[in-house]
């Protein structure tokens, strides 16, 4: 039962004053959008018209004038970043209660619905997401199943249609199209197209065929009609393969990204009770960036609203900024909404960002588009007018500047020269934005400013498999596998590995080793046997004979390599990679580097990929991993990572898509050629579909690219520089973009700029220079970014209180950690208990399942977490788990029906306590009429749990982890909105028997108000310290992996954690006591 007690009057006065101040600053149209809280409202908000502020103020208004709770408001956004920004702004108006407003992307919202209703979505619970490599395998299987007469069967380039099939199936899911619907539309099209009386296929002029047949203008053109019909048949045939695709996915127990929305829409249609639950909860719905929604997202919204004739749904968007059609966005969503609801229409035209001259040029550009609301509905006027306050305007706002260059390097040098001039004039770095279509265009500028140590901010997608540190790990893994298969056969790779800088081996020593082995071969030429490197590296005497300066170091490296070769068959693949990182000091070397954050992120990306792959296939071997990587290389499948150079005060570099929602005083749009803009939409990898399904795609139609250029232009406040070369770096002539011609004011001519030789020489020389970075342990800006979405959980709280150093490495840096057998065993037990209770809850009448059913779920859990075991560990734990679960069942099963109801794996993701965002997952809630009991399952020896169960003895004692966990759950449930019953107690249920008396232990913890006060203080203090980047001192426990790691690899004096602007007394992370 939900709690609904909330009113604006309960909000702290400072927040209400902030809301009042924001409301008063709105213009008449914005206030109208805020005040019209009842019924459907459609707001068309052009660039710079203040829509982000508008949404937050509107939510405050709803809370202010009604008695509903934040829990009853749903706000859907297009991106995770948009959701975070929205919540941050809302928090400034209503305080911590902002965390109780549901602000999510469509996919996150559907994921929450599925997780909260597993009894409804039970058939999907064992499915796992499909990765790109598996996706290729699925499509190959689909194509392999085509019979020899299949229209899409190919005998050469057999898999050529994979991209087209993928795009078609994605589009069908996004729009909710069925194969039958496409077939029906094709039949209708064919019937009309081939009917001479009504067909649109006519001769445009009098024509004579080769056989002498004469066709008059307006006659039926049978050939063109047949060609049109035939061109659609491959697409229609492909559409019918969607069902087979689903069957293959189901067989593999996989789902793809679009499926979550389809599942929720399907269940909403089938299950009125489920739909009514969310209709009752969400009395007000707001949708941001509505122009970027697709058909299935629209259908979900309409289902959520279908209880009311005039639902309280508020959408905001701008058709001129619809730039994500390649991701399935459907600009027609706005029109569908308008026709369905006849909403109150509000158009925001007062622009608070740009000068009128920039707005006029942008309007001149976008007016070339025909697919605009203002052209379909002439009464809907969208002319933007500059509405900035006088004090925020510069003394002079120039026309946009258009620059023409004789080469790409000239363009780059000129932009750099201008930016350096602006910096010398005290223009803040972060008031400058450089925009382009692809990051490769600005790569030289980014290198230049980085090497000059001029702060920049840029985010780009890279393939982690091509990055140095990941390549090194993969190279070492390949060497180990090769040495197992063919010992001493790959010494060229070993030669490379020995040169890796983290070993700190002198290249001259490696050269001497190579010469020594060659000399040994020459001396023993009759046997034609080269002295192999592994033998020499293992022999200190031979290393000394070779004349190396540090034989002990080379011998130590060899011992590591020999150990790894031995361990390939004795540890899991995750553990092997972890050993390589730590034994070799590769991790220590990375953490001592100026670029440590990015390099560690790459390692984490690769390690997470390996763990995910291991979880999916079970016992992943080294050879299996290498086969997977080879398949990825062969199929051009990237392992994506987002590379971020982030300085809060840095020059901003971004693609036009990435610039959406941002603004800068000075904006440079560079490389404005037709190749970069009009011809940058990619090759046509789409099946043709009937025009009555979707408007036929026209590669020559540049409207979406024009909208993208419009978005880029409207990022500028006062100074807009649009540049293009007429010659590329290969000396070939290139055309400027048509958008340059369409946007340039009538009285403005492009300026032809020639950069002088001295400037050009300096620029080229700087690009060729190399400078080492400076060592710094923590990058505060990046830590802040990582903490943006941080929510305190009982696990993170316990980790921080135990050891701040361990928290830093595991929760902030997320250093790769292999999942060991004990952890995997615990996960399998949890899975078995969860699935068993869900299963017997769904019986009618409710009855306890047999012990065999419990063991069946345990077997499945062990397979699910197979990647954490070696084969021997798996066999042992499988037998052991079956034994203890049988005994556990015999001991407790008679009591399980005595409890009226259960909530299993209950996830709380948006609670808050004293301003601290909290989250947690509760294993089991026993629900009684007047109270709740929370149970947490534990594996391991209960005899060792006493210290973790105890309350604090004094002010210095922080209490045990298990005690704190139960109190934390009480705080979570008190702040949650689902249950009105209080949590009475918590139970630590040990699934393994005590070794002392061979009995099961069931520890009950009664939570007192004093407990809540103590843990509440721990939560708030830890959260403040984490936000302040206090990650010291460590626990100094000799068993602590990370304190020991710091001692070994980060001696005092080697690393300086002091920020350049931080006083020595405020150092946030050093290691004097570890």
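Q: What amino acid sequence fits the structure above?
A:
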């Amino acid at each position: 039962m939900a709690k609904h007690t909330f009113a604006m009057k309960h909000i702290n006065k400072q927040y209400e004053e902030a809301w009042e101040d924001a409301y008063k600053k709105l213009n008449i149209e914005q206030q109208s959008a805020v005040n019209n809280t009842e019924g459907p409202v459609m707001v068309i908000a052009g660039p710079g018209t203040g829509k982000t502020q508008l949404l937050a103020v509107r939510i405050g208004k709803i809370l202010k004038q009604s008695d509903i709770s934040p829990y009853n408001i749903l706000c859907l956004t297009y991106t995770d970043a948009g959701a975070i920004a929205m919540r941050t702004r809302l928090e400034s108006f209503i305080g911590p209660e902002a965390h109780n407003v549901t602000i999510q992307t469509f996919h996150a919202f559907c994921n929450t619905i599925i997780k909260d209703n597993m009894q409804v979505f039970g058939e999907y619970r064992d499915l796992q997401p499909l990765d790109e490599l598996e996706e290729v395998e699925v499509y190959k299987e689909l194509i392999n199943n085509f019979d020899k007469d299949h229209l899409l069967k190919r005998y050469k380039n057999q898999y050529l249609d994979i991209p087209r099939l993928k795009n078609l199936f994605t589009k069908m899911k996004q729009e909710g199209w069925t194969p039958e619907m496409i077939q029906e539309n094709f039949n209708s099209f064919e019937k009309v197209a081939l009917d001479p009386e009504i067909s649109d296929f006519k001769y445009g002029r009098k024509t004579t065929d080769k056989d002498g047949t004469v066709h008059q203008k307006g006659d039926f053109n049978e050939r063109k009609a047949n060609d049109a019909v035939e061109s659609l048949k491959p697409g229609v045939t492909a559409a019918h393969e969607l069902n087979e695709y689903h069957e293959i996915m189901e067989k593999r127990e996989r789902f793809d990204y679009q499926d979550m929305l389809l599942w929720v829409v399907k269940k909403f249609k089938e299950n009125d009770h489920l739909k009514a639950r969310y209709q009752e909860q969400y009395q007000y719905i707001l949708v941001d960036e509505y122009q970027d929604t697709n058909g299935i997202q629209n259908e979900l919204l309409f289902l959520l609203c279908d209880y009311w004739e005039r639902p309280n749904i508020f959408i905001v968007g701008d058709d001129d900024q619809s730039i994500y059609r390649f991701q399935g966005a459907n600009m027609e969503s706005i029109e569908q909404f308008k026709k369905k609801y006849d909403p109150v229409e509000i158009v925001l035209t007062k622009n608070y960002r740009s000068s009128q001259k920039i707005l006029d040029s942008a309007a001149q550009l976008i007016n070339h588009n025909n697919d605009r609301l203002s052209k379909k509905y002439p009464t809907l006027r969208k002319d933007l007018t500059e509405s900035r306050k006088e004090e925020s305007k510069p003394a002079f706002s120039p026309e946009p500047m258009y620059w023409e260059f004789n080469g790409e390097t000239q363009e780059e040098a000129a932009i750099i020269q201008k930016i350096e001039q602006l910096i010398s004039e005290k223009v803040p770095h972060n008031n400058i934005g450089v925009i382009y279509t692809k990051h490769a265009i600005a790569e030289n500028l980014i290198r230049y400013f980085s090497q000059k140590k001029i702060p920049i901010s840029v985010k780009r997608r890279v393939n982690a498999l091509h990055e140095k540190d990941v390549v090194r790990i993969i190279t070492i893994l390949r060497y180990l596998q090769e040495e197992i298969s063919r010992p001493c056969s790959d010494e060229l790779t070993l030669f490379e590995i020995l040169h890796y800088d983290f070993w700190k081996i002198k290249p001259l020593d490696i050269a001497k080793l190579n010469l020594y082995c060659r000399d040994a071969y020459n001396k023993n030429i009759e046997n034609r046997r080269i002295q192999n490197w592994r033998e020499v590296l293992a022999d200190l005497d031979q290393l000394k004979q070779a004349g190396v300066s540090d034989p002990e170091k080379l011998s130590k490296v060899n011992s590591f390599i020999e150990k790894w070769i031995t361990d390939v068959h004795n540890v899991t693949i995750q553990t092997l990679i972890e050993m390589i990182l730590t034994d070799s000091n590769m991790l220590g070397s990375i953490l001592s580097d100026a670029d440590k954050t990015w390099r560690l992120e790459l390692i984490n990306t690769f390690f997470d990929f390996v763990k995910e792959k291991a979880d999916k296939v079970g016992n992943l071997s080294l050879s299996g991993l290498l086969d997977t990587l080879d398949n990825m290389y062969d199929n051009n499948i990237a392992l994506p990572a987002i590379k971020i150079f982030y300085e809060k005060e840095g020059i901003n570099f971004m693609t036009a898509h990435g610039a959406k929602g941002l603004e800068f005083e000075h904006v440079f749009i560079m490389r404005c050629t037709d190749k970069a803009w009009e011809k940058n939409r990619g090759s046509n990898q789409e099946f043709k579909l009937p025009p009555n399904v979707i408007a036929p795609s026209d590669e020559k139609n540049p409207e979406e690219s024009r909208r993208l250029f419009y978005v880029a232009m409207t990022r500028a406040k006062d100074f807009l520089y649009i540049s293009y070369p007429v010659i590329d770096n290969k000396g070939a002539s290139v055309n400027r973009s048509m958008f340059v011609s369409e946007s340039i004011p009538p009285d403005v001519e492009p300026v032809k700029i020639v950069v002088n030789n001295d400037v050009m020489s300096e620029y080229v020389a700087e690009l060729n220079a190399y400078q080492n970075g400076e060592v710094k342990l923590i990058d505060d800006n990046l830590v802040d970014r990582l903490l943006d979405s941080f929510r305190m959980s009982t696990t993170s709280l316990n980790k921080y209180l135990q050891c701040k150093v361990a928290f830093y490495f595991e929760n902030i840096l997320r250093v790769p950690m292999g999942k060991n057998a004990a952890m995997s065993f615990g996960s399998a037990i949890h899975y078995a208990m969860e699935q068993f209770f869900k299963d017997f809850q769904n019986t009618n009448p409710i009855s306890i399942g047999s012990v065999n059913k419990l063991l069946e779920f345990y077997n499945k859990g062990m397979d699910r977490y197979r990647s954490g075991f070696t084969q021997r560990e798996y066999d042992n734990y499988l037998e052991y788990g079956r034994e203890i679960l049988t005994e556990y069942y015999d001991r407790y099963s008679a009591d399980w029906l005595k409890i009226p109801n259960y909530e299993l794996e209950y996830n709380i993701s948006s609670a808050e306590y004293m301003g601290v965002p909290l989250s947690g997952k509760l294993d089991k809630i026993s629900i009684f009429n007047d109270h709740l009991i929370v149970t947490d399952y534990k594996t391991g020896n209960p005899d060792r749990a006493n210290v973790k169960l105890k309350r604090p003895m004094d002010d210095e004692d922080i209490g045990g982890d298990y005690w704190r966990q139960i109190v934390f759950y009480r705080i979570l449930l008190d702040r949650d909105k689902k249950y009105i019953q209080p949590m009475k107690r918590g139970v630590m249920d040990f699934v393994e028997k005590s070794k002392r008396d061979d009995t099961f232990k069931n520890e009950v913890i009664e939570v007192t108000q004093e407990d809540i006060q103590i843990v509440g203080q721990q939560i708030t203090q830890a959260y403040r310290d984490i936000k302040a980047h206090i990650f010291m001192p460590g626990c100094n426990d000799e068993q602590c992996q990370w304190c020991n790691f710091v001692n070994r690899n980060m001696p005092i004096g080697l690393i300086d954690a002091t920020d350049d602007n931080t006083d020595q007394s405020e150092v946030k992370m050093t290691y004097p006591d570890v």
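Q: And what stands out in the fold?
A: Residues 1-6, 695-699, 770-778, 1049-1074 have pLDDT under 50 and may be disordered.
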